[in-house]
């Protein structure tokens, strides 16, 4: 028995994103989105980062989001499995182009709206609360082709239209909303985060910050509408979080780490405090990338701050001020040095459980708002043994240690945390690599990197373990 203490009503569950699990990319009147045309294979990173333009399918690439794990047709079976584990909450995202296939229509696609309504009702059937990310790396292709993605101010209006429709339609079915998944990802993977790609003659950095401003204003407007439509609505921002350590105690390294953390905090400073922090204004000014802001933007940001701070946590970062030392290793699109004190996953992601506690404390102290951990988990290779079982002890170990660290943050440090949804509660397509082999789930899905497999679902050992964790409200972490 562990001695962690989670508050009554703590929201245990799992998380997914539409493009990584739905599939059915051309069904139900759905339009094409940026996330559909991000291929598997060596060009994936270049497309996500906006270094290689890809706005449609071609014959040379395989596009895993087309089918993903086919949750579009199997959501009832999947939600029943989540319910069997005792989920209190299910984090999912909307595919914008199911609701507005082009993005700039006035009226929504009823079939798309009905699809999500059915999902929400199915969740409620089991007492599962849906937690909905409005956009999880999702932007209609038409809006990219015609308007240039989020660097165009018109995007705010299209997003606002989407928000109006969903908040009204799903009133009473959904009360927890996230505006943009990992909003800071735009700095690292701008095509994925904002439909931006490098164009000759344009200042890409400037475009990025203009797009960021539009997303921040859109997020505040979404918060405003959500509160107006239903006072029970709670809206959160979402940060790809993780404290950053200095490589040495050289003050230069410490300063570098400090700056690196602020790159991410900047977004939440605006979304939670309601204004641009001075350090960001100064830097944008210095670099000549100050976005164009309209007069009333300031008021919109100030008056519509988020209710809670959500985050994904996979590990911490390590940086140096010395360019020689900075030989970057892999990370969740975030470059980091190798920390000699930490173990890594099979994909080179550094595992840091105490860093989780540090990160939670840092965020809570900075914003003094409840936190919601909406992603955490281990991407690993799973094998089905000769008895047809999947013994993923490594995953259980990882989650157990992270839940303990989160319990310490709550119990020993007084950090307020609303809930915890593990990433990829059912195996799904990896965002960074497009692989199926990088699995996070409690539920195995029979499909490989090239798209072969029966799509059959199978419970892993961690499925039974997580069920006990939820049943005991995080007190029983043994396996
Ligand atoms: C986060 C994203 O960056 O990390 C998810 O919000 C993503 O979409 C998750 O899947 C894990 O990353 P990956 O690359 O292992 O799928």
Could you explain how this protein is built, in words?
The chain has an 8-stranded parallel barrel, surrounded by 4 helices. It has a two-stranded parallel sheet with strand order 6-8. The longest helix has 26 residues, at 204-229. By secondary structure, it is α/β, with parallel strands linked by helices. It contains 15 helices and 14 strands. Strand 11 (371-375), helix 14 (393-411) and strand 12 form a beta-alpha-beta unit. It is globular, with a radius of gyration of 21 Å.
In brief, what are we looking at here?
By secondary structure, the protein is an alpha/beta fold.
Taking all residues together, what is the mean pLDDT? Answer: 96
Task: Describe the strand arrangement of the main beta sheet, using strand numbers.
Answer: 1-2-3-4-5-7-11-12
Show unreliable segments.
Answer: none
Proportion in helices: 25-40%
Count of DSSP H/I helices = 15
Count of beta strands: 14
Task: Summarize the helices and strands and which ones pair or pack.
Layout: E1 11-15, H1 18-21, H2 44-48, H3 71-85, E2 89-93, H4 96-99, H5 110-125, E3 129-135, H6 141-147, H7 154-169, E4 176-180, H8 190-194, H9 204-229, E5 234-241, E6 244-246, H10 251-273, H11 278-287, H12 297-303, E7 308-313, E8 317-319, E9 343-344, E10 350-351, H13 353-367, E11 371-375, H14 393-411, E12 417-423, E13 443-445, E14 457-459, H15 461-471
Parallel strand pairs: 1-2, 1-12, 2-3, 3-4, 4-5, 5-7, 6-8, 7-11, 11-12
Antiparallel strand pairs: 9-10, 13-14
This protein binds 6-O-phosphono-beta-D-glucopyranose.
